[in-house]
Amino acid sequence: MTNPDRPTGPLAGIRVLDLSRVLAGPWCAQMLGDLGAEVIKVEQPGQGDDTRRWGPPFLDDGSRDSAYYLCANRNKRSIAVDIASPQGADLIRALAAKADIVIENFRVGGLAKYGLDYATLSAIKPDLIYCSITGFGQTGPDRDKGGYDFLIQGMSGVMSVTGRPDDEPGGGPMKAGIPVTDLSTGLYATISVLAALNHRNRTGEGQHIDLALLDAQVALLANQASGWLNGGVVPRRMGNQHPTITPYQDFACADGDVLIALGNDRQFVALARLLGVPALADDPRFAVSAERSANREALFAVIKPIIGRWTCDALIAALDAAKLPGGKVNTIPQALAHPQIEARGMVHDLARDDGTPVKVVGFPGKFSRTPATYRTAPPRSAQDTAAVLAAELGLSADEIAALVSAGVVAERL
Q1: Cβ-based burial of 200 (10 A; exposed 0-12, middle 13-18, buried ≥19)
Q2: Is the terminal CB of the chain with fewer CB neighbours within 10 Å at N or C?
Q3: pTM attached to this predicted model
Q4: Strand order in the sheet with 326-327
Q5: Which residues contact 317 (CB under 8 A, 6 or more apart)?
Q6: How far is CA 231 from CA 218, 273, 323, in A?
Q7: Strands 256-261 and 326-327
Q8: Are 63 and 77 in contact (CB under 8 A)?
Q9: Active site members
Q10: Is beta strand 409-410 parallel, antiparallel or unpaired with respect to 248-253?
Q11: Is CATH 3.30.1540.10 the right assignment for the domain spanning 248-333?
Q12: What are the extents of the domains in the chain?
């Protein structure tokens, strides 16, 4: 395991002050940490990140930290500082003066009253990169509203195209099974921060990044947004079907369901041959992608009964042999235990400072020269307060004890 005091990776030497909590901001900061940045996570004394209590399940080590918290906070040091106190705000400003990046997700204007906003901190450190993550952004009529993943999935239009059609059993809008809005915003935040770092490397200039959950989720509408903007088509819920390519969904076999996802006409020719109905590929209703989508129900009337006679394993083996995309719907345990995931080294074992084991899903990018590293497990709240204040700001043990006594900072909860 890499020495946590000597991080390596493409971002080695970069310092991040993480003032965020819950998921989008911490997700961004964790990725920066995986890539070698030194990350200091700032939490509220006596409380910590909200997600520490978002369970069950919880880690059975006395901290009662939730599994949810553990997914987004490795490779960080945790300190607890009361930013509402003048002394606490002074400490954060001193840490920001030594940082390259600040990440925060307070409501618009929420940090200005403490002198921790971009205008104040950039006056102290002009080349600072300051990323603000909010529900709706720093401008616009909804700028002062709070935003959560579920709310934004609905407002952005994602739920209007997710789930079964209204006229089917179980029909209606459905959120994604993971917090896709928070995660995508964290990804966009990381991309934005890295772009700002490159600009700073060229010009010496820092800047403020204004990132909204709603903007990020609307950006992910991708082909569905383009279909409306450029074709006037109002997207609708189609269950597991694809709006423009067919077949691209789940099919019932004799002993379960199999996914078939074809992306072109050549693959359809091969599937028709595999299913024993090669003439389908010459039928003008199905020969090209657009016609297959327009006549999907007629196509399904032919192929669904044939697929229903196969077993799942036999069909998947036949699809693999024909080099056609197909597979099962895995559970999360099945996915994490999949031989391909194991071969790619996606699950990592870490340990907290008391030896408590923690498993994490790693960074997916495989760097040939500067790989991601997994140096420290997600920290207990405030476990590094004294060490950080001493090492980064030069405070003595007596000065730290006085701050603890005054309630300005807290040590491990």
Answers
A1: middle
A2: N
A3: 0.92
A4: 248-253, 256-261, 326-327
A5: none
A6: 18, 34, 33
A7: antiparallel
A8: no
A9: 182
A10: unpaired
A11: yes
A12: 15-219+339-410, 248-333
Cα–Cα nearest to 323, from 253, 288, 283, 273: 273
Do residues 352 and 64 lie in contact, with contact meaning Cβ atoms separated by under 8 Å?
no
Q: Which token pair is 389?
A: 């204040």
* Alpha helices, DSSP H, located in 136-212: 149-155, 180-203
Tokens of 223: 């082909």
2 within 8 A of 35, measured Cβ to Cβ = no
Query: How would you write the pLDDT of the chain (413 residues) with one tens digit per residue?
Result: 344 457 889 999 999 999 999 999 999 999 999 999 999 999 999 999 999 999 999 998 888 899 999 999 999 999 999 999 999 999 999 999 999 999 999 999 999 999 999 999 999 999 999 999 999 999 999 999 999 999 999 999 999 999 999 989 999 999 999 999 999 999 999 999 999 999 999 999 999 999 999 999 999 999 999 999 999 999 999 999 999 999 999 999 999 999 999 999 999 999 999 999 999 999 999 999 999 999 999 999 999 999 999 999 999 999 999 999 999 989 999 999 999 999 999 999 999 989 999 999 999 999 999 999 999 999 999 999 999 999 999 999 999 999 999 999 999 75
- Whether domain 15-219+339-410 has CATH 3.90.226.10: no
Rounded distance, CA 132 to CA 179, Å? 19
Q: CA of 351: how far to CAs of 3, 171, 373, in Å?
A: 13, 44, 14
Of 129, 131, 133, 132, the C-alpha closest to 99 is 129
Instruction: Map residue 160 onto helix, strand or coil.
Output: helix
Owner of token pair 């006594």: 405
Beta strands in 237-283 (DSSP E): 248-253, 256-261
β-partners of residue 212 are: 134
- CA-to-CA separations, 245 to 124, 200, 258, 268, 289, in angstroms, rounded: 54, 43, 17, 11, 6
Q: What does each C-alpha distance from 150 to 111, 170, 217, 259, 297 come to in angstroms?
A: 25, 19, 11, 27, 33
